[in-house]
Amino acid sequence: MNMRRRFLIMPVTLLVSLSLPASEPSTQEWDYIVWINEVLKGPERHLENYHFIPQSNILSRVKEPNQHFLAYIQTVEPQAHPAEVPTQQEMGRIKEAISLLPLLHKRIINDRVIEICFIENLGSSGWTDWVIDDHGDLYCVVAFDQQTLSMDLSQWLESRENTCFDGVSEETKIRIEAGTEYSGFYGILLHEMTHVIDVVLNITPFVELSLYALALKQGKVIKDSSPFIDNVWEGPYTPTASYNFALRDSVTFYRPVGNRKLMVQDAAIVFDQLAATPFASLFACQSWAEDLAELVLFYHLTQKLDQPYTISVKKGTDVIYSYRPMGNPMVAERFPLLDMFYDSEN
To answer: Mean pLDDT over residues 339-343, rounded?
Structure first.
């Protein structure tokens, strides 16, 4: 990784900061060894503290959150607590969602996902974090908001999108049309498991800063670029100047970061600016890791499952702006980069 790239400090969820340096570090001032050693003191980071049976049925890994992982989440989201155990009907939805994933996702889940859990007041729809074994291999634990099991895909996407704006009401809001055939859980599962693949296969140079520091501690060479980020991203959270549109710095989902929050009155302007980029969604413009997860999500939904995907800004019964991201030539130009997710299916 070329140290000229800009670093912002966020975890895999890319929503909150967890025991990280207070400002963007430079090679001179940031002692990454000291910092990552502190991170590794957390019991939630070590595979030995989880009950993981390799090659076990994936559904058997749907369980109450590991106590160490939950305690870690609660340092950021104090109100977070385990959701009720999924009902038999909900387990059926979980099984179906897993069965519909691309083959690469299924293989990586089987090998590297040690736990899937549901947490209330998670602060987001999903949370993926890394765990390491004694050999330095990476695994992941993934938490979900249980409400996604009771939403269809359009409802989940629409609810997520509207958290990006202040002033949302029944009168003025963002509508997402992505069909009702699939559940909201399927959407967030596909998104989060793409993060898992990125952690394991290193599609982007690194998913988040702690993994960058860990790789340096392990003496690994961090690639300076990859086909997925080239000409799109200057750093993990900074697009190239061409795509760093005027209102992008105010894009934040679920909860505001500082005083940043977009106003719903500006939504049409924001999506019009998004339409001049190769990002598949507004969520994607936050980081190169989210860019990958969102492109895979919407590519799979539209190109493999033949579902719609339209973003609309509505005022009353009037649609004042409408955009179909996957019909954007700049987005479609990136589709061949996703062949790796499907090559094993041919």
So the answer is: 90
